[in-house]
Automatic annotation (TrEMBL):
Pfam families: BSH_CzcB. Residues 1-20 form the signal peptide. One of its GO terms (cellular component) is cell envelope. GO terms for biological process: copper ion export; plasma membrane copper ion transport. Residues 76-220 form the CzcB-like barrel-sandwich hybrid domain. Belongs to the membrane fusion protein (MFP) (TC 8.A.1) family. This is Membrane fusion protein, cobalt-zinc-cadmium efflux system. It comes from Dyadobacter koreensis. The keyword Transport applies. Keywords: Signal, Transport. GO terms for molecular function: transmembrane transporter activity. PANTHER family: CATION EFFLUX SYSTEM PROTEIN CUSB, SLR6042 PROTEIN.
Length: 377
């Protein structure tokens, strides 16, 4: 009887161990196959699954930047009246196009009349003083006049020359040509002319207002030499150099690219650890205005990397995966890291060598859906 009980216990123990091993095997197989999607031939055909080997391609990384259009100081002109005056007429509005030499405004003031009067009076007096100086010089040579009289005549003549030169320059500063000034063309008004071709960006005055010499009437901009000022972080400064080409575009028209070239890299870092990089547009485009925000792509040095088509890569939980054929109708999903993307291809970074490994290049998303639906069952 005791012998029978021992045999029965051994049989039960053996049965229990075999069931436990079988359960462990099932669990292991289930965990092993959690990244494997199995499809039948019809499903593979409907999903359009295709495989191919990864390719080696020359691909260049892109540094994406943003900034705004800027105008160099020599292309911004502030118009003021050096002697002040009242604004008589102007037709300018912000955005008005102007040509070099065009009349921007007419100013008037009684000081212009006084300045012209002083010049013409001084011009008449200098003739008298010159003749007196020459006469006293001849008399002094023959000792017919004293040295003091000659020196006084010389001093008066030289002082008048200095005054005439100063008045001459003041008239030119006011916009009056002293060489053409006579008693018959004295004017109370002066014209202000545009020194550049461009457009008006600011109008700070109105008709009838008195403008002091320190006030700016108008601000003009010559847009033909606008720059694109970009912000570059400190960590990326070593990737750029003068002469590099840039493709710039606006948010409103991202498909329209503007060719630029880097002409200046700032050596000063801002508190945000960025430096300003100036680039010059290849050609003037009227739709590009100062202050406009733009994006820019800088093509960095190209390198040979292993790539797959973008359709071969799927994203799940912020991670990237690709699929490998495993047998006739199974496909295994493996996580990879991706690098630079260009022209429909993406760099694949993996610890495993994938050069000779077939990968799913079409239908990867269908495999992901099949795999995840299976895991939820």
């Amino acid at each position: 009887m005791m012998k029978y009980l021992i045999y029965s216990l051994l049989i039960l123990l053996s049965s229990s161990c075999s069931k436990k091993a079988e359960n462990e095997k099932i669990t292991t197989e289930k965990s092993t196959d959690s990244n494997v999607a199995s499809l039948n031939e019809k499903q593979i055909e409907n999903a359009g699954i295709k495989t191919a080997l990864p390719e080696k391609k020359q691909i260049s990384s892109v540094l994406k930047l943003n900034g705004k259009i800027d105008v160099p100081p020599q292309n911004i002109v502030s118009i003021s009246v050096p002697l002040g005056g009242y604004l008589k007429t102007t037709k300018l509005l912000p955005g008005t196009r102007v040509k070099k030499g065009e009349v921007l405004a007419v100013m008037e003031d009684q000081q212009y009349i006084q300045l012209q009067q002083d010049y013409l009076t001084g011009k008449a007096r200098i003739v008298f003083l010159e003749n007196d100086y020459l006469r006293q010089k001849d008399l002094n040579k023959s000792k017919s006049s004293s040295d003091k009289t000659f020196q006084q005549a010389e001093s008066d003549y030289q002082s008048q020359q200095v005054m005439m030169k100063a008045l001459h320059e003041k008239l030119k500063l006011a916009g009056i040509n002293p060489d053409h000034l006579t008693k018959d063309n004295i004017t109370r008004s002066i014209s202000i002319y545009s020194p550049i071709n461009g457009y008006v960006s600011k109008v700070n005055v109105n008709i009838g207002r008195y403008v002091s010499p320190t006030e700016v009437l108008f601000e003009l901009i010559n847009p033909t030499d606008i720059h694109l000022a970009l912000k570059v972080f400190e960590k990326d400064l070593d990737k750029i150099k003068i002469g590099q080409k840039i493709l710039a575009y606006t948010n409103n028209m991202p498909d329209k690219k503007y060719q630029c070239e880097i002409i200046l890299i700032s050596k000063d870092l801002s508190p945000e650890r960025t430096a300003e990089v100036h680039s010059h547009f290849g050609s003037y485009e009227p739709e590009l205005l100062p202050g406009m925000f733009m994006n820019a792509d800088i093509q960095l040095n190209s390198r040979s990397v292993l790539v797959l088509p973008d359709d071969a890569i799927v994203t799940y939980d912020d991670k990237q995966y690709i699929f490998f054929p495993k047998g006739k109708s199974s496909f295994e999903m493996k996580q990879v890291r991706t690098g630079t993307s260009e022209s429909g291809f993406t760099e694949i970074i993996s610890k495993e060598k994938l050069d000779n490994q077939l990968c799913v290049v079409n239908g990867a998303y269908s495999l992901l859906m099949s795999l995840k639906n299976k895991s939820e069952e």
